[in-house]
Amino acid sequence: MSKRNTVIDLFCGCGGLSQGFIDAGYKISLGIDKWKDAIETFNFNHKDSKGIVADLLELNPVTVSENEKIDEVDVIIGGPPCQGFSIAGKRIIEDERNQLYKTFVNFVEHFKPKAFLMENVPNIMSMGKGAIRNQIIKDFENLGYKVSHQILLASDYGVPQNRKRAFFVGLKNGSEFKFPIPTTTNNKVTSEEAISDLTEHTVNDGTPYMHKYKSSFQKQMRNGNKFIFNHQITEHKEKTIEIIAMVPDGGNYKNLPKELHETRKVNIAWTRLNSQKPSFTIDTGHRHHFHYEFNRVPTVRESARIQSFPDDFIFQCSKTSQYKQVGNAVPPVLAKVLAETIKNYL
Ligand SMILES: C[S@@+](CC[C@H](N)C(=O)[O-])C[C@H]1O[C@@H](n2cnc3c(N)ncnc32)[C@H](O)[C@@H]1O
């Protein structure tokens, strides 16, 4: 059997990005995140990997190599939170807010993987009129990597969600990485195709599916699995149910009588999924987005489907925490396409 490529996932969360790499045949040697709940889910689902709870501001790669006995790693992946980037002129300032990004750079410098994949919010490309993006490229070029970058739309790659994310891929062998060509631009997976086999009401963990799958995406997510997990509905107040019942499939607060427009002070309020389109970007559980048909927010399982997590990926800890873990993740199906493409260069 050929040796699997090894990966370290930094800021791994519950492991959406890792899941895609596992599905593409990689071995995740190590996942690191400071959030205990996310690591609990990571370890529950990635039995062949090791997730550790640690603050990456305080952990250096030398200690990781020694403690975890990792000398070699083929790929380093991860999404360091970079919202607080600050720059002076064209340089990223070495202040605390940028240290998490610097940690990612330090890991690449220490382990010298054949490739790295860094994920981030799309506006990282335009921050400081592109200065941040250019500095990121330069930092990795200084370590000997050829860097490509692109913003990808998840729904172009078989994910039922219009989620955009920025990706940087670096290759040590000097090849230029070409991002995967979109596969589903003209036949996007819709919200209905994603979740229509899941019931209106709560299903206890471990209950067999009530319906047969109704789309090829549902079949793909079930992946031979027989039981439902994380499908406990949110019980809304009577008033909330009354209001959302007035919003049609794909509608929002504009479909409500004028006097109700201001009931929630955000412009994304009272939005229903559109059954015939991919979902908008799901959040971390703010409860503003509702099911296209049922008068409730999507369950954790429905959100996980929209993120393309397979049904046998089971989220741990409280429901609030589960929504956050799901909403934070890179969609595994998109991650898998990237992982497969990277493999061609290793
Ligand atoms: C966007 S989420 C990562 C999602 C993950 N890539 C996935 O696909 O599931 C960012 C993660 O960074 C973690 N994080 C933030 N600051 C950190 C730190 N100082 N040390 C370790 N992890 C940190 C958060 O707990 C969060 O889980």
UniProtKB/TrEMBL annotation:
Gene Ontology MF annotations: DNA (cytosine-5-)-methyltransferase activity; DNA binding
Reactions accelerated catalytically: a 2'-deoxycytidine in DNA + S-adenosyl-L-methionine = a 5-methyl-2'-deoxycytidine in DNA + S-adenosyl-L-homocysteine + H(+)
Catalytic residues as annotated in Swiss-Prot or TrEMBL: C82
Record flagged with keyword Lyase: no
Keyword annotations of the record: Methyltransferase, Restriction system, S-adenosyl-L-methionine, Transferase
Enzyme Commission code(s) on record: 2.1.1.37
Record Gene3D superfamilies: DNA Methylase, subunit A, domain 2, Vaccinia Virus protein VP39
Superkingdom classification of source: Bacteria
Biological processes annotated in GO: DNA restriction-modification system; methylation; negative regulation of gene expression via chromosomal CpG island methylation
Family assignment from sequence similarity: Belongs to the class I-like SAM-binding methyltransferase superfamily. C5-methyltransferase family.
Name of the featured protein: Cytosine-specific methyltransferase
Species of the source: Saonia flava
